[in-house]
Amino acid sequence: MAEHVPAPRFPNRLGPLVGGSQALGLACVIITGVWMGHFRGGFSWDGSLLEFNVHPLCMVLGLVFLYGDAILVFRVFRHDSKRAVKILHAVLHCTALVISIVGFVAVFHFHAKASIPDMYSLHSWCGMVTFLLYLVQWLMGLGFFLFPCIMAQMRSWYLPLHVFFGLALLAMAIASCLLGITEKLLFAIKPTYSKFAPEGILANSLGLLLVCFGVLVGYIVTQKEFKRPPNSEEEALSVHFKMLTGMEGISSP
Amino acid sequence: MAEHVPAPRFPNRLGPLVGGSQALGLACVIITGVWMGHFRGGFSWDGSLLEFNVHPLCMVLGLVFLYGDAILVFRVFRHDSKRAVKILHAVLHCTALVISIVGFVAVFHFHAKASIPDMYSLHSWCGMVTFLLYLVQWLMGLGFFLFPCIMAQMRSWYLPLHVFFGLALLAMAIASCLLGITEKLLFAIKPTYSKFAPEGILANSLGLLLVCFGVLVGYIVTQKEFKRPPNSEEEALSVHFKMLTGMEGISSP
To answer: Where in the numbering of this chain does the Cytochrome b561 domain appear (chains A, B) (predicted)?
Structure first.
């Protein structure tokens, strides 16, 4: 008689929470599209104000939604091979990086054409610091976790830093978006903003939804009950590593 | 011969990191004071723009610096009695709450006198949501952790939520400050902001320092190596609790 193997357990609350995060993230991308597409005249790549409109859409899609999802894959695909999930994490971060570079090019290109000074506002400072630290985190993640030649001890030293700064940079990306929303509204609709113009209410709501997305991703990632269970292959490696070095095994991100 | 009792270990890196957080927090309060006191004309309580100036100072002092310190006490006073540290945590949060209420009254009073509409901007929405959630967190913390009649199981259920939302609300408070900085600069010095006016550079730097403070507090609180070690009294209680209920003991915040 075949031995009974229980199906891997998927925490009850995780499904609805991840579903909620996806609904929030998609809502943020759609609302940004509607704001720029409907209220701000649409998109183009001709150096006009319509090129600027590419910037918010790319940043919300790349540095918030895809970035958040790249973090979540370790919780969602909890019973798949670690290697496959790492590759998915890297692919999502690659896409996020490319989209956010397009977003950066759009705003600098528009500024150059319209002779608007760069990098004077708090939004630009926070956004640039976040983007540069994201690049550093991206390159260090690639170096430490995708190349097999890196020693397990170095990975286990770097892992808590990678996890902490991953979440901190998501929070900074969202804060930069909120600053961008405020800047755009005060430039574009200052006289009607204080009269609760529909565009202002839409953009404010976008801000709160971005915060909700960040809080939900942060909650899912930090709660012990949702941590990725070590699978048999990782357990074996960890025990082998402990025997060889006398150290604690590498925990899952 | 008396038995040798080793001195409790204080992690090497914790001292400099906590020192750094205090330097950053104090710098934020001082820079806010200089910005409002020197560049914006000072403080008063007469419904004028000088009354508004009380608002940023109170929010940075109360909802950022004192709030952050209230979180840190569990790491800093790691070998003192849990009860004493809890009381210090509560006293700091009481002070933070009173100061932030003064900050809220200042801005609403100024708006009423100057007939400026309330609650239309993203800054006001984020700030109000943060403050109301802080009140809920404050009352729930008081109820669950300071009253001895609450059952240990309920405390251990609520603790991870209290810790997570404590950090999430600090991040939201800092994001609200960044939005306030951007709003104030675009109202007060829009023509010279893009010419890198000293006031704009000072306020932008304040924004980055607030982010650094939040990141450092978050780092200290979330790293395993800085977690509060259970003392003998807590260990005994935890073992007793496990024997009674068959549950895991209550972990430290």
So the answer is: 20-222
**Whether the Cβ atoms of residue B41 and residue B50 lie closer than 8 Å to each other:** yes
Token duo for residue A158: 């770097």
Question: Nearest CB to A121: which of B164, B193, B218?
Answer: B193
DSSP for A231-246, written as a single string: -HHHHHHHHHHHHHHS
Cα A93–chain centre separation: 8
Question: pLDDT digits over A88-120, tens only?
Answer: 999 999 999 999 999 999 999 999 999 999 999
Q: Is B122 contained in some domain?
A: yes
| Tokens read off for A149 | 């030649």
Determine, for residues B121 and A223 on separate chains, whether the beta-carbon distance falls below 8 Å: no
CA neighbor of A99 nearest in space, from A55, A62, A53:
A62
A252: in domain: no
Contacts of B184 in chain A (CB under 8 A): none
Measured CA to CA in angstroms, residue A120 lies from B10, B187, B202, B230, B253 at distances of: 42, 15, 11, 48, 40
Helices A198-222/A14-34 angle, 10° precision: 150
**The pLDDT of residue A34:** 98
Q: What is the CATH classification number for the domain harbouring B55?
A: 1.20.120.1770
Measured CA to CA, the distance from residue A34 to residue A32 in angstroms comes to 5
From the list A126, A186, A193, the residue facing B178 with the nearest CB is A126
Long-range contacts of A193-196 (CB under 8 A, 24+ apart): A193/B120, A193/B121, A194/B116, A194/B117, A194/B120, A194/B121, A195/B117, A195/B120, A196/B120
Tell me whether residue B25 is in a domain: yes
At residue A194, the 3 state secondary structure works out as: coil
Domain count, chain B: 1
* Domain ranges, residue A95: 14-223+230-245
B interface with A, Cβ–Cβ < 8 A, is 116-117, 120-123, 125-126, 129, 160, 164, 168, 171-172, 174-175, 178-179, 181-183, 185-187, 193-196, 200, 203-204, 207-208, 211, 214-215, 218-219, 222-224
In a domain, A250, yes or no: no
- Cα(B62)–Cα(B56) distance, rounded to whole angstroms? 10
Report which DSSP code applies to B77: T
Q: Alpha carbon of B240 to those of A218, B229, B247, B248: distances in Å?
A: 34, 18, 10, 11
pLDDT tens digits, A214-235: 999 999 999 999 999 876 555 4
**Dist. CA B154–CA B158, nearest whole Å:** 6
Are A252 and A74 within 8 A, CB to CB? yes
CB-nearest partner of A125 from B116, B179, B207: B207
Cα separation, A44 vs A49, in Å, equals 8
The ipTM value here is 0.91
